[in-house]
């Protein structure tokens, strides 16, 4: 399949800023990298947090994430390697395996745990938090879970491949996860050295790119090239076309976009609401066992 070429009416998305995440620990001491949700980028509406984890040292991840609550947003867990068991207070339980996705809408509240289903070996993946609009923060919790085999892979010319987790690509592939509230696009893209990649994006969506492996240079707002390497995140300007040329290296990256909610955000640990009073109520509800 040939790649779509840019047209004159396209507005090109460029790199607005780029940076690496900061080391952090979460859960019962899991070592990870916080990319969104750190001082450099507290959020990118509707994205509240992006954590990346990659380690073959059991002491970095074996303690996992024991039972903890959430309210008011969605958690999206995407595994590249390893196995993670999920269990919640409503009786839902399952294992996320390599290439699998779990898209959990916490809504009005849930208590769950995420524990490694392994004692050694590599554990690698991401957790993305996506905000919910005010009138849906108290919706009933919902899961969308898909194994690797159920996530479409789109092959393009020159060995370009992308896994479509949510949204619809310019070539017509649609991911299994549906969320009309933020209309997210979540792609895992591989581009071999010497190849181009083009993708159209809704012009008003906020979008970012996160490099999983390899390196690449992308045009920035000044018209120069910004070099991105492994574990770099680039926030993209608004526009309807993203393009990338892989130079010396094969590159693999996440391309994620979502409709901004443009609402007040109040945070309190595992809760994300619109006001401080709603955060205090969430803590009280959790203490009272309402979740």
Descriptive report:
It is built from 2 helices and 24 strands. It has helices at 58-61, 276-287, and strands spanning 15-20, 22-26, 30-36, 47-55, 65-70, 73-81, 84-88, 93-96, 101-105, 110-116, 123-131, 142-146, 153-155, 161-166, 185-191, 196-200, 206-213, 216-219, 225-228, 232-236, 241-245, 251-258, 266-268, 271-273. Strand 23 and strand 24 (271-273) form a beta hairpin. The longest helix has 12 residues, at 276-287. The radius of gyration is 19 Å and the shape is globular. The protein starts with 14 loop residues before the first strand and ends with a helix. The relative contact order is 0.20.
Structure at a glance:
The chain is mainly beta and 291 residues long. It is built from 2 helices and 24 strands.
Task: Write a concise keyword list for the protein shown above.
7-stranded antiparallel sheet; single chain; about 290 residues
Which SSEs are present, and which pair or pack?
Blueprint: E1 15-20, E2 22-26, E3 30-36, E4 47-55, H1 58-61, E5 65-70, E6 73-81, E7 84-88, E8 93-96, E9 101-105, E10 110-116, E11 123-131, E12 142-146, E13 153-155, E14 161-166, E15 185-191, E16 196-200, E17 206-213, E18 216-219, E19 225-228, E20 232-236, E21 241-245, E22 251-258, E23 266-268, E24 271-273, H2 276-287
Antiparallel strand pairs: 1-20, 2-3, 3-4, 4-11, 5-10, 6-9, 6-11, 7-8, 7-10, 9-12, 13-14, 14-15, 15-22, 16-21, 17-20, 17-22, 18-19, 23-24
């Amino acid at each position: 399949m040939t790649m779509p070429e840019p047209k004159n009416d396209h507005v090109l998305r460029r790199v607005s800023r780029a940076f690496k995440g900061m080391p952090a620990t979460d859960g019962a001491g899991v070592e990870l990298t916080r990319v969104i949700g750190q001082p450099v980028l507290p959020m990118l509406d509707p994205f509240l947090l992006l954590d990346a984890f990659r380690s073959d040292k059991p002491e970095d991840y074996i303690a996992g994430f024991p039972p903890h609550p959430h309210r008011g947003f969605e958690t999206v867990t995407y595994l590249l390697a390893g196995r993670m068991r999920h269990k919640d207070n409503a009786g839902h339980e399952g294992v996320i395996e390599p290439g699998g996705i779990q898209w959990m809408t916490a809504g009005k509240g849930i208590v769950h745990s995420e524990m490694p289903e392994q004692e050694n070996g590599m554990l690698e993946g991401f957790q993305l938090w996506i905000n919910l609009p005010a009138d849906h923060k108290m919706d009933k919790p919902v899961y969308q879970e898909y194994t690797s085999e159920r996530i479409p892979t789109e092959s393009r010319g020159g060995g370009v491949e992308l896994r479509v987790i949510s949204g619809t690509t310019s070539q017509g592939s649609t991911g299994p996860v549906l969320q009309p509230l933020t209309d997210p696009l979540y792609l895992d893209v591989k581009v071999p050295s010497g190849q181009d990649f083009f993708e159209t994006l809704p012009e008003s969506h906020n979008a970012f790119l996160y490099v999983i492996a390899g390196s690449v240079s992308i045009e920035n707002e000044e018209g120069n090239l910004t070099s991105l390497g492994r574990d770099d995140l680039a926030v993209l300007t608004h526009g309807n076309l993203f393009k990338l040329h892989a130079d010396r290296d094969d590159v693999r990256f996440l391309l994620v976009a979502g409709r901004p909610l443009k609402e007040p955000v109040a945070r309190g640990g595992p809760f994300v609401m619109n006001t401080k009073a709603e955060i205090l109520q969430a803590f009280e509800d959790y203490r009272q066992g309402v979740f």
